[in-house]
Structure formats: structure tokens, C-alpha cells
User: Fold this.
Amino acid sequence: MKLQLKQYYLFTLLFSMIFLYSCDEDDAAPAEENEEEVITDIKLIFTNKADANDKVEAKAKDPDGEGTKELEVSDAISLKAATSYTLTFEIMNNLETPGEDIGEEVKEEGAEHQIFFSFTDDAFSDPAGNGNIDNASDKINYKDTDSNGNPIGLITEWTTGSNAVSNGEFVVRLQHQPDVKTSTSTATTGDTDFNLKFVLNIQ
Assistant:
């Protein structure tokens, strides 16, 4: 009888432990996912600061979103020498109806995003150099910041050099940096939402 009673208590204890463990597993919060944005259309818009009607646009398109195709650049960037421009972006997911403004989402989640740039060495007099993809501390004229005062990159300013550039390059790279973006974040921090290389001409 004592043996049976002991076995009963052991069985009850084991069952209780399994039940409590199962409850703890069920109550555990699911891991938060930081999904990359679905982007099908990107437009770079260079607006001449001296003439708002003088705009240069360059586009990239990915018609299948998360499918096998990647964003493909369709335009070169052709700017005037010794001219100041403001660069803005249109970033869309046009798989949605109506299209989803991913640029607005990037702005709202600015503390998780930053656009980095690289370009043909000294194509611009300001910022000079070759951009901040290779070295995050290199100068870019960011004109928008997140809630922590760190740059986003949806609005930047550029002044072209006086020398002509033919078949140069201009690269834009959007990094998604949830919980890791800081004042010293680099172009390899987080995940890449897009990385586009445009042909750059300055005349």
C-alpha cells in the first residue's frame, strides 16, 4: 500500500511539473520580428536649389516585390556642373492597391533607418570625397534627423564640382537598423533594404 501511495505522489508531482512547464512555454511572448520593407519602385529626385522647376529624376523598379527579381536601375543621373541640388526620394510598394508609401514609413521609423551614399571621388564639391558607405564618418549633408538626432537621409543637399564627370557612379543604400542605430552606425549595421548603383554624369 505504501509503495502504491508513493508511486501515486511521484506521478502527481511529475504531471504537475509538466503542466507548469507547458503553461510557461505558452505564456512566453513571441520573438519580435523586424521585417524588411517590400519595395517595388524608387525614384531619386534632384531639385536645383536655384530653380525648383529644374528637376532630375532617376528610377529603379522591382515588379515582383519579394519575388526572385531585384530592383533594377533604369536611368542615369545627369546633373549640371557647379550647381546645388536637394535630393529627395519616392519609395513605394506598388504591389498594394493603392500603393504603400514606404518612404513615409521610413520617415516614421527614422530611428531604425539610415540611407548611406557613395559616389565617384570628388564629383561633388560639397560634400567632397567619395561618400560614407566605406567610412560612416565621412561628410554627407543630411537635412533630416530621427527622434535621437541621428541622420535618416531622405533629404540631402549636394553641390556638383566644376569638372565634368562621365559614366561615374552614385550609390544609395538604405539600412534597416532596429535597436542598433546610433550616431556611429555604418553601412553594414543592420540589414540592407536596397543598394542601388546609378550612372552619374556631370556636365
Q: What stands out?
A: Confidence is low (pLDDT under 50) at residues 29-33. Helices lie at 2-27, 102-108. The first helix runs from residue 2 to 27. Residues 41-202 form one domain.
